Amino acid sequence: MNLHNMVLMIGMPQVIIIIVVVLLLFGGRKIPELMKGLGSGIKEFKNAAKEEEEESKDKIEDKK
Length: 64
Description:
about 90% helix, about 0% strand, elongated
């Protein structure tokens, strides 16, 4: 059994166990802070990717 099949076998009981473990490790007060940090990281990544895409379009237009 490979890793791909194991990932597909995750069901609702496993998800509940994972959520309980995360709550026990980080506590209820830390999770919103973690999610806020994750959200801001994703936002920064998207902005950087968008800027990179615009720069590459500008370079292509300059070559024409």
